[in-house]
Amino acid sequence: MEIARSAAAVGCSKEHQRIYADWFALADPDGDGRVTGADTIKFFAMSGLSRADLKQVWAIADNKRQGFLGFGEFAAAMQLVSLAQAGNEITQDSLKREDLASFDPPVMKGLDELLSRSMAIVNAVRPEKNGTSQVQAPATNNWFSSKSAKKMQTPLTAVTSVIDGLKRLYIEKLKPLEVACRFNDFASPLLTNSDFDAKPTVMLLGQYSTGKTTFIKHLLKTSYPGAHVGPEPTTDRFIVVMSGPDERTVPGNTIAVQADMPFNGLNTFGGAFLSKFECSQMPHPLLEHITLVDTPGVLSGEKQRTQRSYDFTGVTSWFAAKCDLILLLFDPHKLDISDEFKRVISSLRGNEDKIRVVLNKADQVDTQQLMRVYGALMWSLGKVLNTPEVMRVYIGSFNDKPVNESAVGPIGKDLFEKEQEDLLADLVDIPKKACDRRVNEFVKRARAAKIHALIIGHLKKEMPAVMGKAKAQQRLIDNLQDEFAKVQREYHLPAGDFPDVEHFKEVLATYSIDKFEKIKPKMVQAVDDMLAHDIPDLLKNFSNPYQ
Predict the structure, then answer these.
(1) Is 297:233 a contact under the CB 8 Å cutoff?
(2) Is the pLDDT of residue 12 over 90?
(3) Which residues contact 165 (CB under 8 A, 6 or more apart)?
(4) What is the spatial distance between Cα 120 and Cα 115, in angstroms, rounded to a whole number?
(5) Is the pLDDT of residue 357 over 60?
(6) How far is Cα of residue 469 from the mean position of the Cα atoms in its chain?
(7) What is the C-alpha separation between 385 and 372, in angstroms, rounded?
(8) Which of 7, 86, 89, 532 is 20 to 30 A from 225 (CA-CA)?
(9) End-to-end distance of the chain based on CA atoms, in angstroms?
(10) Interval 285-344: pLDDT, tens
């Protein structure tokens, strides 16, 4: 399975890579390893290509829409320029050409003179006392340190990618509001540097023995450390399968405290959960682009009577908010949606756009039975998802065994292959859409935090100044739905953006409303300005420079 290749040296010889490395250093004057749109316009102009051709070159090289080119993407762009100069049409498949290595580096007018000047400057520079030059880390590495954000404010134009811009906006405008209104206790933990830099994630959910672990093994074409497959519940923990230098498993308590991992928020679920959580690391080309989350089988029947030692639904909801894609797996013999599964699906509220339904092991029944199974599955989902839209269901048998043609026939085999291609196409697009997804989730979080702040501010104003605070708080909690309606009418907010009333009541009962900080209007206004101006400007700055 090929995941959106980002370019590094696809069919590029070592000699050409050395040439492109010198060019990249010239095109990246600040030495941060990123060539932005402004740098690109000056450098690519030396190719003599038309603006339309350069627009296509950038679009293909920056296929993840990060707003910059790393060395790999830059090398790919140079290869595309070579193709265009040779009279070839530039398409999405250009980097897959078998003769790509036979093309010489592109002709860049005036580049040799610039390289000569650059080398002269480098040779004139004296090394530091210890014989090495000191490279200053980008300021973005320090945004999440303990220093005051006010001391490190820099112009938004100083950032070199969309993600770095979001980090800055979060620290300066959104995080202060979240801290003031305790948003992290009601909804989602405060974001860290690793949350922004994390790779796109795919989570698999389903009842036991629906083929979740086998599905992952099918994608990887190999097993992963800690994988167990069997007819009964075998995966008894949440396993994050991600890229690593060697094959190993890391315990949950260890991975949850590592600052460079996006799992710090799981500490809120306690040791009972962390003992049922682990990270499986292995070197694999697919895992360099996405992270996979294998989950315990959702319980059904008599097994539901045994309570888990942690908040399974809460953990699922936490992962759902972080994931880019959620796969709900069923098989033809497990179509019933148990009470626990119903709660799990309900916990995905707000993330419906990420859900894909997979009817796995479909070659275990014949064509007539499959038609009935499909109808029964749609009926069951309709009762739980509470949406008039019909959700897309992918049908197939996602394992390494050949399709059982004796059951499904040649028509069924063709159907399974087409469905599998469609689902894999969804997975292939994940890295390409990762940056857009980060922006989408950030905007969603900012709106939720703003509404949360307005609710807290309203409740605080409703509290008496001196006497009867306990009774007033209980009255507000009991009538919370009505208070939500007042806030909605006062600020003209959409009802669908408000949090779940019951969950809000549960958390609010542990606080004294009058102890909340006073919500300053300028903090809410800062978030409004961020949504209305800063984020659109950021996206404009890092869009295709040739548009």
Answers:
(1) yes
(2) no
(3) 156, 159, 538, 541, 542
(4) 9
(5) yes
(6) 43
(7) 20
(8) 7
(9) 32
(10) 889 889 999 998 887 654 554 567 888 888 999 999 889 999 999 888 877 778 888 888
Region of residue 48 (left: phi > 0; alpha: psi -120 to 50; beta: else): left
Integer Cα distance of 361 and 398 in angstroms? 7
Contact 523, 453 (CB under 8 A): yes
The C-alpha atoms of residue 94 and residue 158 are separated, in whole angstroms, by 33
DSSP-derived secondary structure for 137-205: PPGGGGTTSSS-GGGG---GGG--SHHHHHHHHIIIIIHHHHHHTTHHHHT-PPP-HHHHHPPPEEEEE
Instruction: Band the pLDDT of 494: cuts 50, 70, 90.
Output: very high
**What percent of the chain has a predicted confidence (pLDDT) above 70?**
85
pTM over 0.90: no
The Cα-based distances of 513 to 176, 424, 506 in angstroms read 19, 49, 13
As a whole number of angstroms, the distance between CA 546 and CA 539 comes to: 14
Query: In sequence order, what are the beta bridge partners of 238?
Result: 277
Q: What are phi and psi of 533, to 5 degrees?
A: -125, -55
Give the number of residues written for the chain: 547
**Residue 331 in contact with residue 361, Cβ under 8 Å?**
yes
Sign of CA dihedral 61, 66, 70, 72: negative
What is the C-alpha separation between 177 and 173, in angstroms, rounded?
7
Q: Are 302 and 274 in contact (CB under 8 A)?
A: no
> Which residues have CB under 8 Å from 335's CB, separation 6+?
373, 376, 377, 380
Cα 149 from Cα 205, distance rounded (Å): 39
Which tokens sit at 511? Answer: 């606080």
Taken in order 514, 519, 520, 521, the sign of the CA dihedral is: negative
pLDDT of residue 347: 84
Structure tokens at 152: 């490190």
Residue 337 in 3-state DSSP? coil
- Using a 10 angstrom Cβ sphere, with 0-12 exposed, 13-18 middle and 19 or more buried, the burial of residue 189 is middle
Contacts of 492 (CB under 8 A, 6+ apart): none
Cβ atoms of 439 and 541 within 8 Å: the answer is: no
pLDDT of residue 401: 77
Q: What's the pLDDT score for residue 120?
A: 64
Asked if 407 and 365 count as a contact pair (C-beta separation under 8 A), the reply is yes
Position 411 confidence tier, pLDDT thresholds 50, 70, 90: low
* Of 72, 60, 68, 71, nearest in space to 161 by CA: 68
